[in-house]
């Protein structure tokens, strides 16, 4: 039985994305919004919108769900989407949680425990150690693994609490600062240490299952273009994978998901050494991923809709053999941030905001012109997704679309991504996860001065342009605006 009303426990582009899926399925939507989001697009797009204290407040969200009479909750990504207690609380309130079971979330929510589980399931993991306590434990472990090593938070996410350590001298400080950051961000200071794979590619597999035991993978996403361990550009297929490696990794991803009785949408992240093509399990994200649209483009499947449909009890109708990849898709994450200044978030009013359009171009966003971008939330403005026949044409389409994207009022990473896409290393598919930070030298284009902008605007107003002369002398067109008697002129 399809749901009647779904509460979307999220904000921004992902809330808008999920609302559209609901509307297409004929399901009513309930938005929730914080004080800062009172006028945001997601709150206006829903049939009903209710205020909440915060997107992390379970009681507040459940009160809104009860008040609206919703019969299901979609968590989106970030916030409470990977919180097993939230999933349980939703189900205890006799609402359906649109996602995997609380048990699957718990089993995969912790990087240390999930690695132990994956080793048992025969999925290759990055060599390393979990459950370390004292400084001498860490030293012994790092020595055995061999430097460089990576210290990371067991409860981590969003690239937080990670430190690369090149030798024993730097280990103590890295462990302390990593633990501190982990405690602050996740309320949990447990760490793990693992082999740092230099020049690695981040390649992840989308998995998808229904609640009747059908579980498949929907191929890979190459997410190596990153800054601060966070993705900026993703694409599929990955230029690194051969058909055999794709098959092997896809099977490993399905085994990983099966080991925790997974259903609904999930992602198995791997790190791949480009020299040996050895792959290692990194973590599982038990939710819909930011970059899911590129998978939708090449498979033709609406993942947000399928999440809802399988949560309502439907069978996922495709077997692994029936699924294919068609063409090439790329996503660019348009952030309100300043790449020339350490990728610091930029806030402000969107004075001008125009999205590109055209065949094979999709924009998922939660903003419109005149909206305010605040410092309270993730600085993601929009996701620009293109789909074309092959990698080369997809890159060209993306470059053209980025040129068309106009954002005034906040600093964005649009020019920066344009430069990455034009780099020969990107064209050759050689970008690894530390490439942006270690190899890419970027010189932002010079900003036009205020005076030159004013001069350009004045010139446009005062000097009759050639187009207006052509149009005004166009005697054939009866609808020509130049014949309009109300005196309007451009
Ligand atoms: P994806 O792998 O889907 O690209 P990201 O790691 O970029 O996901 O995270 C998506 C969103 O979720 C971001 O807003 C990020 O800050 C947030 N996020 C991810 N993991 C956590 C976490 N453990 N705690 C809080 N926020 C998180
Ligand atoms: P998060 O939960 O923050 O997404 P991940 O474990 O998925 O944490 O790692 C985020 C990123 O850090 C990866 O995409 C990759 O760029 C880098 N990374 C993580 N582990 C390793 C490793 N062992 N070697 C090299 N890079 C790594
Ligand atoms: Mg990750």
Task: For the structure shown, list the relevant keywords.
490 residues; globular; 8-stranded antiparallel β-sheet; 5-stranded parallel β-sheet; D-amino Acid Aminotransferase, Chain A, domain 1; alpha+beta; Dna Ligase, domain 1; 34% helix; Rossmann fold; binds magnesium ion
Question: Briefly, what is this?
Answer:
By secondary structure, the protein is an alpha+beta fold. The chain has helices at 12-24, 41-45, 58-68, 84-92, 102-109, 111-120, 135-145, 171-186, 243-258, 292-299, 303-311, 391-404, 414-422, 424-427, 435-438, 450-462, 466-472; strands at 5-8, 28-33, 48-51, 72-74, 96-97, 128-129, 149-153, 163-165, 191-195, 201-209, 215-227, 230-236, 264-272, 279-285, 328-335, 337-338, 344-345, 348-349, 352-354, 361-365, 372-373, 380-388, 406-408. Strand 4 (72-74), helix 4 and strand 5 (96-97) form a beta-alpha-beta unit.
């Amino acid at each position: 039985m399809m749901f009647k009303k779904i509460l979307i426990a999220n904000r921004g582009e992902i809330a808008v994305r999920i609302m559209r899926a609901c509307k297409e399925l004929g399901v009513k939507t309930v938005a929730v919004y914080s004080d800062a989001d009172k006028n945001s697009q997601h709150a206006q797009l829903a049939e009903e919108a209710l205020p909440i204290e915060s997107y992390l407040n379970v009681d507040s969200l459940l009160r809104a769900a009860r008040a609206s009479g919703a019969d299901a909750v979609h968590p989106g990504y970030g916030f409470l989407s990977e919180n097993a207690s939230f999933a349980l609380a939703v189900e205890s309130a006799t609402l359906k949680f649109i996602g995997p079971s609380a048990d699957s979330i718990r089993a995969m929510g912790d990087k240390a425990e999930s690695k132990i589980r994956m080793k048992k399931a025969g999925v290759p993991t990055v060599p390393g150690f979990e459950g370390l306590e004292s400084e001498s434990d860490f030293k012994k472990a790092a020595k055995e693994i061999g430097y460089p090593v990576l210290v990371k938070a067991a409860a981590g996410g969003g690239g937080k609490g990670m430190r690369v350590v090149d030798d024993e001298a730097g280990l103590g400080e890295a462990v302390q600062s990593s633990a501190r950051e982990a405690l602050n961000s996740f309320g949990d200071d447990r760490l793990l240490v693992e082999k740092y794979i230099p020049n690695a590619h981040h390649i992840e597999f989308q998995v998808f299952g229904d609640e009747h035991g059908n579980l498949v993978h929907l191929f890979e996403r190459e997410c190596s273009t990153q800054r601060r361990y966070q993705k900026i550009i993703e694409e599929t297929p990955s230029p690194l994978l051969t058909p055999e490696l794709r098959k092997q990794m896809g099977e490993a991803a399905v085994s990983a998901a099966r080991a925790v009785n997974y259903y609904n949408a999930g992602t198995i992240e791997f790190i791949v050494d480009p020299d040996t093509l050895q792959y290692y399990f990194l973590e599982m994200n038990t939710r819909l991923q930011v970059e899911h649209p590129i998978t939708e483009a090449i498979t033709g499947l609406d993942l947000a809709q399928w999440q809802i449909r399988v949560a309502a009890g439907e069978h996922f109708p495709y077997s692994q053999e029936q699924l294919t990849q068609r063409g090439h898709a790329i996503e660019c994450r348009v952030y309100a941030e300043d790449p020339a200044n350490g990728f610091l978030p930029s806030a402000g009013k969107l004075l001008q905001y125009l999205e590109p359009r055209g065949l094979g171009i999709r924009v998922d966003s939660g903003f419109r012109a005149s909206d305010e971008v605040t410092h309270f939330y993730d600085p993601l403005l929009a996701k620009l997704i293109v789909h074309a026949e092959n990698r080369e044409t997809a890159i060209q389409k993306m470059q053209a679309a980025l040129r068309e994207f106009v954002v005034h009022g906040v600093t964005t990473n649009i020019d920066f991504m344009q430069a990455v896409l034009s780099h020969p290393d990107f064209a050759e598919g050689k970008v690894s996860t530390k490439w942006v930070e270690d190899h890419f030298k970027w010189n932002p284009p010079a900003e036009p001065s205020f005076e030159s902008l004013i001069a350009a605007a004045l010139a446009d107003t005062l000097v009759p342009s050639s187009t207006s002369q052509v149009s005004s002398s166009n005697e054939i067109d009866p609808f020509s605006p130049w014949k309009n008697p109300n005196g309007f002129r451009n």
